[in-house]
Write a structure and sequence with these properties.
The chain is α+β, with helices and mostly antiparallel strands. It has 13 helices and 19 strands. The strands form six sheets. The chain has a six-stranded antiparallel sheet with strand order 1-14-15-19-18-17, with no helix packed on it. Strands 3-2-12-11-10 form a five-stranded antiparallel sheet, with helices on both faces. A two-stranded antiparallel ribbon has the order 4-7. Keywords: Carboxypeptidase, Hydrolase, Membrane, Protease, Transmembrane, Transmembrane helix.
Length: about 450
């Protein structure tokens, strides 16, 4: 205190000297106690003034630097890139004969025409359909004598000697036949099964004559039935398919396949691998493709001069909301093995054309926010994402994001969305980590990066 007082006295004396005061005045004041007190008070005030003058600017800067708002972190965020599209699917029908394909349940992927005739190989001209005719026979008879449900077996057919004689008549024509003992009987449902499963031609004629009185009566009923359903390019002259004048086009047969699949009796029988009845014994289905690649029907047919045919239905699970419902036809193949292999290959390639593509993983890093003082946090995808795509359908990526508000771990700042055809998937964009505040030293030493 004495030192500070002396400093103050010196300042006062210096001021008095500037005013011109002499030594006599100083001596007088030195003797006067009141004067000494006044001198001491003036010294304290002078010291405070000097301190303010010297120290005020640095203290003001420090207060500003330590409390000024910081610049926002710099963002470096990039939307995930879309995966490259795979090669286009190639259905590739067999090179012999003609073929067509209908796919229901995938119109959003394949186009609205898929449930009609989606793919085709060769022309669309009428060709002999052989025993596929028996599907028409079954549908025409059931239109006249419908069965209510699976428990309804329908009326009873009793076979006489004339019916039994057809066994030999068709045997000499090298047709597929099944035993029909005179005096035996069978329900309509079982008779239809004997006609469709082993493709017994003698049963086809007996059922048609029983229902319509004669083959001519059946033909007229078939004409009416076909015309009513728009199958104008299908011609049926007899119920078995042995006559090559029984013809149809791939387009008409696709429509016929849908009608057969929609009929619960015909659909159930066509999907049966084998049947056995007292009059016939065990009988195997001529459609050896049942169970292959989801094939569950419908009918084979072969004529020596026109080749082998297959009208098939299939249920194919490719990951869509519901399995695909396929109707396909192949006419004029080299053999039943060939048309069967062709159908299986078409279905396999159809299924392979659908891809489940992984697009994102939970925690996948897509960017950062970085501060001027070196602290940073990551920008990541909160969830995984994937899409089901068909063939080479491109995947489009869109991202929306905003500036963080809380700057805390887990804060959602946007969304990434992927789209391909009818499929869309998205995942939130979130922050991962925390921004560490700058040190006081950094604030004091980086004035140009504050505010």
């Amino acid at each position: 205190m004495e030192e500070r007082t002396r400093d103050g006295d010196d300042l006062v004396e210096f001021a008095e000297m500037l005013r011109g005061g002499g030594a006599t005045d100083r001596a007088a004041r030195a003797i006067d106690p009141a004067a000494r007190r006044r001198r001491r008070r003036r010294g304290l005030i002078a010291s405070a003034v000097v301190a303010v003058v010297v120290l005020a600017p640095p203290a003001g800067y420090a207060a500003w630097a330590l409390n000024a708002p910081l610049r926002a972190p710099l963002a470096a965020i990039t939307a995930p890139s879309a995966p490259a599209a795979p090669p286009a699917a190639d259905i590739r029908f067999a090179p012999d004969g003609v073929a067509a394909l209908s796919v229901a349940g995938a119109e959003a992927y394949l186009g609205p025409e898929a449930a009609g005739v989606w793919a085709r190989y060769g022309d669309d001209e009428p060709r002999p359909i052989a025993s596929i005719t028996k599907l028409v026979t079954a549908l025409v008879v059931l239109d006249a004598f419908p069965l209510a449900d699976a428990s309804d077996v329908g009326p009873t057919l009793t076979f006489d000697r004339a019916d039994h004689a057809l066994y030999d008549a068709y045997f000499v024509r090298d047709a597929t036949i099944a035993a029909m003992p005179a005096g035996s009987s069978m329900s309509l449902r079982d008779a239809l099964a004997t006609m469709l499963v082993p493709s017994a031609s003698n049963y086809a004629e007996v059922i048609a004559v029983w229902a319509f009185g004669s083959v001519d009566g059946y033909r007229r009923a078939a004409d009416r039935w076909l015309s009513a359903r728009g199958l104008e390019r299908t011609t049926i002259v007899e119920p078995t398919g042995l006559d090559p004048r029984n013809t149809s086009t791939p387009t008409d047969l696709i429509a016929l396949g849908r009608l057969a699949k929609a009929d619960p009796t015909v659909s159930a029988i066509a999907a049966t691998p084998s049947v056995s009845f007292p009059a016939t014994g065990p009988l195997a289905n001529t459609n050896r493709m049942l169970g292959e690649m989801g094939i569950d029907g419908l009918k084979t047919g072969t004529l020596e001069d026109s080749g082998s045919n297959l009208l098939y239905s299939a249920t194919v699970d490719v990951g869509t909301a519901e399995p695909l419902r396929v109707i396909g036809v192949a006419l004029g193949g080299a053999s039943q093995q060939a048309v069967g292999a062709s159908a299986a290959g078409v279905l396999q390639r159809l299924a392979a054309g659908f891809h489940r593509t992984a697009l994102a993983q939970p925690g996948q890093r897509i960017g950062t926010y970085t501060t001027a003082w070196g602290s940073s946090l990551d920008v990541v995808l909160a969830e995984g994402a994937s899409l089901l795509t068909w063939s080479d359908t491109p995947i489009v990526v869109e991202m929306q994001h905003r500036e963080p508000v809380e700057w805390v771990d887990g804060e959602t700042i946007g969304e990434v969305t992927w789209t391909a055809g009818p499929e869309t998937d998205s995942t939130p964009v979130v922050l991962e980590g925390m921004i560490e505040p700058p040190t006081a030293w950094w604030r004091l030493t980086h004035p140009g990066e504050i505010g």
